[in-house]
Amino acid sequence: MGAKHITLIDLNNFSYYPTISMGLVARYIRDAGFSLNVISPLSNGIKSRSREKVEGKIDYYRSRIVFSQSRAVRSLIQQAEKLPYIKERFLKKRKLASTVINSIPAETDLVLISTYTENYTICKRVVSHLKSLGIPVIIGGPAFNDLNHVAQFVAIDGVNYVVGSEIDAYLGDLLRDFFAGEDVFKYPGVYSKDKHNTVNKYIFKKMDELPVPDYSDFPWDKYPNRIIPYMTGRGCSWGKCNFCTDVVLVNGRSYRSQSKEKVLSDLKALSEQVKTNIFAFTDLKLNSNVEVWNSLIDGLPKIVDNPIWFCAVHVDNRKRNGLDRETLIRAKQAGLTRISFGLETASQRLLDDMQKGTTVARLDQFVNDVKAAGISLRATMFIGYRDENADDLRQTHEFLVKNQDCFERIKLCRFQIYDLTPIKSELSPQEQQNLHARQINHQYLNSDYLREKKKILRIVNKINSKRLNEDARAFDGVM
Ligand code: SF4
Question: Fewer Cβ atoms within 10 A, N terminus or C terminus of the chain?
Answer without folding.
Answer: N
